[in-house]
Design brief:
single chain, 20 helices, 46% helix, Tyrosyl-Transfer RNA Synthetase, 5-stranded mixed beta sheet, 423 residues, Rossmann fold, alpha/beta, 6-stranded mixed beta sheet
Length: 423
């Protein structure tokens, strides 16, 4: 933990994570002593994705510099939907789905922030929003906002000018988030809200509400929205979001996503998505520049992020699985169990593996070959590999089985199937 709490701004600057702030001199003065700040996450799914991760890590960076984060999970605002950065209306979620999503996200957040005594606090805006009547909300919040100010915000104006327009529901989102900031300022002494640059309009609405209603100055800070060098959205793969939940995006897929990072993005992602120091990142990039083909920076990015999100054991299994699927020879049970989630599998009896001991029917059943004759032909051509070693004969023996139940077979360079014994 830093002895100079304001040093977090220098760190964020060095990582390219400062886009807009309220008065910088005043904010630096506020951060010269431990400060309570918040960042909001709407529970639109039952897992965080890497698009959320910049904000979660930003809270962690502030905490590591001696500040106290509040992480707001939007059980109320999640029912409305934030129009920022969208061209269409969000689907509205029912209360049960939102409750499930909130609980799931809360379980993930404890991996990244210290929620011990005096540490981070998790709050849900449903707790203070739901008890209010519409008349109370109009009197205590709406009274202090002008429609002129609201329509001037980029997130609202762009939607009003689009073909789809904006519903009154989403138009009101700004007031709900402003009320959150006022409530946290009033009840938890929060003086800083952070978020992506698309949140600046919502953040300044909250700053205005606190100033008008309570005559207090509070602050805001945003970071640039993180995009890839090719212009695509950060956190998106061909299949969609890259999730932090292992059941949605496996640790192996997560690791491979970062290993495939474009050279133009890797330094920026190391700065913005890992807890490595800027000096360490500079050293990594120096090594990477000597031999870009070795992808030193991408491998370090994948390792740092996968360990942070999934832990050291899953990182090790995913790394070993990746090595196997690229022709490696070191077989561990955890790696094979990881491989079983990534490639087609074939169940086989002990008799098929040891009694009859023939590769041909296994290859035909495994989808690697279309028939027994195709399997024999592939063996004769030398395109079949057993446990990453070329195999031209049809036999299987006990020594081929890994941990008495796994047999990794491959046709060509990339087509794998994992045969798993039922016993």
């Amino acid at each position: 933990m830093s002895a100079e709490p304001e040093a977090v701004l220098d760190d964020l600057d060095g990582r390219g994570l400062v886009h807009d702030t309220t008065d910088r001199r005043e904010l630096t003065e506020v951060l010269s002593s431990p400060t309570i700040l918040y960042h909001g996450i709407d529970p639109s799914a039952d897992s965080l994705h890497v698009g959320n991760f910049v904000g979660v890590l930003a809270l962690r960076r502030f905490q590591d510099h001696g500040h106290r984060p509040l992480v707001l999970v939007g059980g109320a605002t999640g029912m409305v939907g934030d129009p920022s950065g969208r061209s269409d209306e969000r689907n509205l979620l029912d209360i049960d789905t939102l409750g499930h999503n909130v609980e799931s996200i809360e379980r993930q957040l404890v991996r990244f922030l210290d929620f011990g005594p005096g540490g981070a606090t998790m709050v849900n805006n449903h707790d203070w929003t739901a008890p209010m009547s519409i008349l109370e909300f109009l009197r205590d919040v709406g009274k202090y906002a002008t429609v002129n100010q609201m329509v001037a915000k980029e997130s609202v104006r762009s939607r009003m000018e689009s073909d789809n327009g904006i519903s009154y529901t989403e138009f009101s989102y700004m007031l709900l988030q402003a009320f959150d900031y006022w409530w946290l300022s009033e009840n938890m002494a929060c003086t800083l809200q952070i978020g992506g640059s698309d949140q600046w309009g919502n953040i300044t609405a909250g700053i205005d509400l606190v100033r008008r209603r309570s005559q207090r100055n509070v602050h805001g800070l945003t970071w640039p929205l993180v995009t890839k060098a090719d212009g695509s959205k950060f956190g998106k793969s061909q299949q969609g979001n890259v999730w932090l939940d292992a059941d949605r995006t496996s640790p192996y897929q997560f690791l491979q996503h970062w290993r495939n990072t474009d050279d133009r993005d890797v330094e920026r992602f190391l700065k913005q998505l890992t807890l490595l120091s800027l000096d360490d990142i500079e050293a990594v990039m120096a090594d990477h520049t000597k031999n870009p083909g070795a992808r030193v920076a991408q491998r370090r990015l994948g390792r740092e992020l996968t360990e942070l999100v999934h832990g050291p054991e899953r990182l090790e299994a995913a790394t070993e699985a990746a090595d196997l699927l690229f022709g490696g020879s070191v077989f561990t049970r955890s790696a094979l169990e990881c491989v079983a989630l990534e490639v087609p599998t074939t169940a086989a009896s002990s008799a098929e593996l040891l009694g009859e001991g023939s590769l041909v029917p296994l290859l035909a059943r495994s989808s690697l070959c279309t028939s027994n004759s195709d399997a024999r032909r592939a063996l004769a051509e030398g395109s079949i590999y057993v446990n990453n070693e070329r195999r031209t004969d049809d036999s299987i023996d006990e020594a081929d089985l890994r941990f008495d139940r796994f047999l990794l077979i491959r046709r060509g360079k990339k087509n794998y199937n994992l045969v798993i014994s039922a016993s």
